[in-house]
Amino acid sequence: MNRKFSGYLLGFCLVLLTIPIQAPAAPVAVQKLVNWEDIVHLSRENNLPVVILVDQWDCPYCDIVEQEFLEPMLRGGQFDQLALIRKISIDQGEMITDQEGKSISAREFARRYADSFTPTILFLDCDAQPIGENIVGVNSTDFYGYYLDKAIVEAHAQFNN
Question: How do strand 120-124 and strand 50-55 relate by DSSP bridges?
């Protein structure tokens, strides 16, 4: 009986050794846009529009957009050839260097393109000009990914025309 159990145990251990061990996915975060000039060089070099999430700390929908849509896009890599994805936070004290080299509040930068409603997704060319319509708010997470994907593809097409 003891030998039989040992045989089963050995067989079970051998089966476990054949199961591939998959490392957890590396964490991916949407990079914060701090200096417009840094992104301009990447945008021009790679012919890619800039997609910016405008968020703030007390916005649960901002977290949903970032964690359930943008981070998976970055992790999957399928949008690497379509857009540069960044974020700005319009919280008090958050600053950005704009396309003119001036240090301004992130809120002021965002207001150039939209109201202060968050989350908002901006689509800009390398001259900081809007291309495509902003996505404002989250009406439904069921279709948000579809609309975001479509808007990024359209921004890429418009950027390269």
Answer: antiparallel
Q: Which of 144, 9, 11, 122 is nearest to 68 (CA)?
A: 144
* pLDDT on residue 14: 52
Strands 120-124 and 135-136: antiparallel
CATH code for the structural domain at 26-159: 3.40.30.10
Q: Where are the domains of the chain?
A: 26-159
**Within the chain, which residues score under 50 in pLDDT?**
16
Stated pTM of the model: 0.81
- On whether the CB atoms of residues 109 and 32 are closer than 8 A, the answer is no
Beta-carbon contacts of 98 under 8 Å, excluding residues fewer than 6 positions away, are 36, 104, 109, 128
- In angstroms, rounded to a whole number, what is the distance separating the alpha carbons of residues 29 and 89? 14
